[in-house]
Design brief:
Blueprint: H1 2-29, H2 34-45, H3 48-58, H4 62-85, H5 89-109, H6 117-148, H7 190-225, E1 285-290, E2 296-299, H8 300-305, E3 309-316, E4 327-336, H9 337-344, E5 352-357, E6 362-366, H10 367-371, E7 378-383, E8 386-387, E9 397-399, E10 413-419, E11 442-447, E12 457-466, E13 472-479, E14 482-485, E15 487-488, E16 498-507, E17 510-520, E18 542-548
Parallel strand pairs: 1-10
Antiparallel strand pairs: 1-2, 3-4, 4-7, 5-6, 5-10, 7-8, 7-9, 11-12, 12-16, 13-14, 13-17, 15-16, 17-18
Bound molecules: the ligand Nc1nc2c(c(=O)[nH]1)N[C@H]1C(S)=C(S)[C@@H](COP(=O)(O)O)O[C@H]1N2 and molybdenum atom.
């Protein structure tokens, strides 16, 4: 039993050394992390309901959860291999090598990796070799230590076993009989103890070295990750040729109510990247090709020199549940996509653009939304007066007012292909989500927070509403099914959300059911039908129960 436990610890240590060494090498040569590659593969192949569930339960932390889950799985497999290895060494080594092979396979097939083959495969190979070799060494050391403890000949590994140097003086005659007669109980002998101790020490030394490999690799990995995360000093953004309108009264200033602008730090983040791509704007380029007259490759400098527009746009994630918070408003700076398209010339028959990010994620956008002169779709380089943060797409992303992010907001964009919807399937479309996805009219209640005890009397209700690119014309609050028209924040930008408030609801004793519904500028009321986020956005009224005492 004790041997099994030591075996398990050895396996754990071997796995730890393998992962640590691999991540250290990956950092050193800027190669792909095998752990991340396996994780990416897991994300890509996980069924939509699982991703939904992960987003719902872990929110934006789902990636941390995934990486942690993978490390725990690797640790468990390592411990299992080690415990097995005490009696079945080959099986254990086979299992460890198989886990390593999964990592190699993952880096070879993962999307978005464009490194040279050697760089691409090295870290995963290091993981395989180090974890397997470490396990072999440790299991051998274990066997040797076990063998050396009783002075009994055994099939120890070559050179690993130390025989007692002295014939113990106080041994009983029985002990000098042939090997078959040796008692199983450990003789009380200083020499034998020393010998066993020596092998235990050798084993511990090996374990220490292997552990150190893991710690060193892991430390190097962490250090590498700690490089600058700020993009703010990298670029001086030019002034826009077409500035955003001066914002009127968009905030009621109600405590607890979402503000009109979202800071870059508070902006929600949704993507499939386990590790945020950190592109260099000096070497960045975007290929514009497909059904165009003059294919071009744009560089970052070209964008800096082009006439820039500045617009306030609310970005929306299709995964948002009714009442959810996967949305935010920023002041974006960029080049109008319609201008770029006009300069390259669109061939007849095109109806879509397939855009691709540096990490291999793809997105399909209706061409009509990009050429529409009334909709300022842009290649954005600035967000709230700063260069895009890395996790929001540095150096260039798309922003298209009125379409959910998964069909429009490509971050880390490197390719822009004019094509037809029947020619391709984008990342989420091939996983059951819609190819076309305009933002649905929605609203939510934020104040007071749900399930807060309220006192009878005058109470203020407030929240957000949106019908991105159409604009909100009315918000109604349904208090126990009776509709009350809310005040809207005066500032009316159809491309952004809008605050609403109902300042003087006379709350009476008892439980009240409060729901909210918005109407867009065309007079269309948001759908009351409850629908899940997939395939094209959740619908239904956000409803809360407020107990008044
Ligand atoms: N490269 C890349 N771009 C992407 C995604 C992605 O997974 N990869 N996700 C999209 C989705 S689903 C949304 S809602 C928005 C979110 O943008 P944000 O993270 O800046 O808020 O980015 C879009 N752009
Ligand atoms: Mo999204």
């Amino acid at each position: 039993m004790q041997a099994r436990a030591t075996g398990a610890v050895s396996g754990l240590l071997a796995a730890f050394a393998g992962v640590g060494a691999a991540e250290g090498v990956a950092t050193a040569i800027s190669g792909p992390s095998p752990v991340v590659a396996v994780g990416t593969w897991a994300i890509d192949t996980s069924p939509p309901w699982l991703r939904e569930w992960a987003i719902r339960n872990f929110g934006v932390d789902d990636k941390q959860v995934l990486v942690t889950g993978m490390l725990v799985t690797i640790a468990l497999l390592g411990a299992l291999a080690g415990a097995l290895g005490v009696t079945h060494r080959r099986l254990a080594v086979g299992l460890t090598a198989a886990v390593g092979a999964v990592g190699v396979l993952a880096v070879m097939t993962a999307r978005g990796l464009h490194d040279p083959a050697l760089v691409r495969i090295s870290p995963a190979l290091v993981a395989l070799v180090v974890s397997t070799a470490a396990l072999v060494l440790l299991l051998r050391g274990l066997a040797a230590a076990a063998d050396a403890a009783p002075p009994e000949p055994g099939p120890a590994g070559p050179g690993a076993r130390v025989t007692p140097r002295e014939a113990p003086a106080e041994v009983t005659p029985e002990l000098e009989r042939p090997a078959v007669m040796i008692p199983t109980r450990r003789p009380i002998s200083l020499a034998a103890d020393l010998a066993g101790g020596l092998d235990r020490r050798a084993f511990l030394r090996t374990a220490g070295v292997i552990g150190a490999v893991g710690v060193a690799g892991g430390a190097f990995w962490k250090l590498g990750e700690q490089g600058s995360y700020a993009t703010s000093g990298l670029i001086t953004l030019p002034r826009p040729a077409s500035p955003a309108a001066v914002v009127g009264k968009a905030d009621f200033g109600i405590p607890g109510l979402t503000s009109y602008f979202t800071t870059n730090d508070d902006f929600y983040r949704i993507d499939t990247a386990l590790v945020v791509p950190r592109l260099d704007h000096n070497t960045w380029s975007m290929k514009i090709h497909g059904l165009v007259d003059h294919p071009i490759t744009l560089r970052f400098d070209d964008l800096l020199k082009a006439p820039l527009i500045e617009r306030d746009v609310t970005l929306m994630c299709v995964s948002n549940e009714v009442g959810g918070y996967y949305n935010g408003t920023a002041r974006w700076l960029g080049v109008r996509v319609a201008d770029v398209l006009a300069s390259v010339g669109i061939k007849p028959g095109a109806d879509a653009v397939k855009s691709t990010s540096s990490d291999g994620w793809t997105c399909g956008t209706p061409l009509s939304a990009l050429t529409d002169p009334s909709r300022d779709a842009m290649f954005a380089i600035g967000m709230n007066g700063q260069p895009l943060p890395y996790d929001h797409g540095f150096p260039v992303r798309m922003v298209v007012p009125g379409l959910y992010g998964f069909v429009s907001a490509t971050k880390w964009i490197t390719e822009f292909e004019v094509t037809r919807f029947d020619e391709f399937e984008a990342y989420w479309t091939s996983r059951g989500w819609s190819a076309q996805a305009p933002v649905k009219t929605q609203s939510r209640i934020e104040v007071p927070r749900p399930y807060r005890d309220l006192l009878t009397g005058q109470t203020e209700l407030a929240g957000m509403s949106w019908a991105v690119h159409r604009g909100v014309s009315k918000v109604e609050v349904l208090i126990d099914d009776e509709p009350f028209v809310a005040q809207l924040a005066p500032w009316d930008n159809p491309d952004t959300w809008r605050q609403w408030r109902l300042p003087n609801w006379k709350a009476t004793k008892g439980d009240h059911t409060i729901a909210v519904r918005a109407t867009d500028i065309l007079g269309e009321v948001q759908s009351a039908r409850r629908a899940r986020p997939d395939p094209d956005g959740a619908s239904g009224y956000h409803t809360v129960v407020l107990p008044v005492t």
